[in-house]
Amino acid sequence: MTPNRIGFSFLIIGAFLLAGKLIRTRTKWLQNLFLPSSIIGGFLALFLGPDVLGRLTSQFLNEASIFYNGLIPGFILDVWRPLSGLFINIIFAALLLAKPVPGIKKIWNNAGPQIVMAHTVAWGQYVVGLLLVLFVLTPVFGTDPLAGALIEIAFVGGHGTAAGLSDTFTLLGYPEGADLALGLATVGIFGGVVSGIAIINIGFRKGYAKPLDEKPTFSDEEKEQIAESYGYDIEQDVKHAKAIEPLAFHLSLIAVAILFGYIFQQALILLEAYTWGAWTDVYLFTYMPLFPLAMIGGIIVQMIFAKLNLRNYIDPNIVSMISGFALDVLLVSALATLSLDVIGDNIVPFLLISGSGIAWNLFAFLYLGPRMIPDHWFERGLGDFGQSTGMAATGLLLMKIADPDNRTPALEGFGYKQIMFEPFVGGGLVTSASLPLIYQFGPVTFLIITSVVTLFFLIFGLIKFKPERLPNKP
Fold it and tell me: Minimal CA–CA distance to 310: which of 228, 253, 247, 234?
């Protein structure tokens, strides 16, 4: 592979991103689904690739033709395939790099019910997936037990996490899992937006949504936390190092965060090799991807700058732009190289997993939400439902539709919740470790672990946050 071909492959990604943007601006129903341009561009590339258009061109062109397998040459797809595993590290290194972490007490007072609810749903997705694998998918269809983790990886983690774990799926002997996870993530976005909007319409008619009489006032620190979490514009005094361009400076910060994560990864692999791994022949960190540790590296960089009183050199907007660019590249490359043959060969398990995941999320929102969230359960629960079905952006979208003026504390709690949620599930340490844990200890052991954790959060939430009465009507 020559440097010119690699560079040309990245240029083509830019072309598909622009095409996705143009299609989105001219297609009303895509706008109504709030699909990002990168996902539209990725599916356009998939359509023009070997699995769709390539099936037609291969009937008319000679195998020596560059367009034998569609309009995207094979060397471009070869460059795109490993990109998801690389760019996911940038996304997670930037995730908490520019976010000052408030005190635990403040987070808990603002978002305690949402934290518990979100963990109940996420850990419960493992329980649902593993039960489905043990009693249906593996006995009937011979599905790999690793499929038990697909709901959490795809629904809560989204396309980025699904694509980022492709190397882990391959390393553990289940490469088709990455394609299934990407397909499930797409189903999750569609299902989350469509069902969420339907729920909002029904909820308003039944009077579940109860906005406050007056819009609450947030402190400057709370506004900053929400703004940095979700990219709202915010005025702040950001300094830039004069001897280096701001973009290069922030790229360097992210690079150092990834290097910290890599050092941690290698240290853990080495420690495992000479301790419990050698004693028990059980290895976990060998199969653990880099990106959750890169997230920890980002926290360390942020803490170092705060300790040196240099935190105002880190611009959240630039960090967000770098992360957004990496996510766009990841989505286009991952979707373009998605294997439709894999989904077609596993269509029944794929549909069963999709249906079970969506059913669990609906049950959790409609039944557990009113019983675990004492105030404004509808608006608060919508955020968890959207995130657990699609991604954090879906949850944010549904909350903004139900509460456009932020008259409830739902958005504020959602922002604080992420600090106690994302480092663990939805792409965090537990998500990345779930595949090695199932591989090493088996699905039954991991089912027991996830069941215990789910029950803990469920019982704690029902007892601690149970409202005096179920808010059926305002």
Answer: 253
Nearest to 383 by CA among 350, 354, 367, 361: 361
Q: Return phi, psi of residue 47, to 5°.
A: -65, -35
Q: How many CB atoms lie within 10 A of CB 432?
A: 24
Mean pLDDT by 10 residues, the chain (474 residues): 89 95 87 77 92 87 81 91 88 82 78 92 96 96 96 89 89 93 88 84 75 45 42 46 79 96 93 88 84 89 90 88 89 88 92 95 93 88 87 75 78 80 85 93 96 96 74 44
The dihedral region occupied by 392, where left means phi > 0, alpha psi between -120 and 50, and beta the remainder, is: alpha
Q: What is the mean pLDDT of the chain?
A: 85
What are the tokens at 36?
A: 């990002």
The pLDDT value recorded for residue 220 is 47
Instruction: Give, as one character, the DSSP assignment of residue 63.
Output: T
**Can you tell me which residue has the tokens 């909350």?**
399
- Name which of 163, 112, 158, 39 is nearest 412 in CA terms: 112
Say if CB 283 and CB 277 are below 8 A apart.
yes
For 53, 78, 396, 427, the CA distances from 65, given in Å and listed in that order, are 14, 17, 46, 40
Instruction: Give the model's pLDDT for residue 394.
Output: 75
Give dist(CA 32, CA 238) in Å, integer.
35
CA distance 358 to 187: 9
Question: Could you tell me if 103 and 305 are in contact, meaning their C-beta atoms sit under 8 angstroms apart?
Answer: no
Exposed, middle or buried, 374 (CB in 10 Å: 0-12/13-18/19+)? middle
Residue showing tokens 């989350």: 192
H/E segment holding residue 457: helix 443-464
Output the pLDDT for position 471.
47
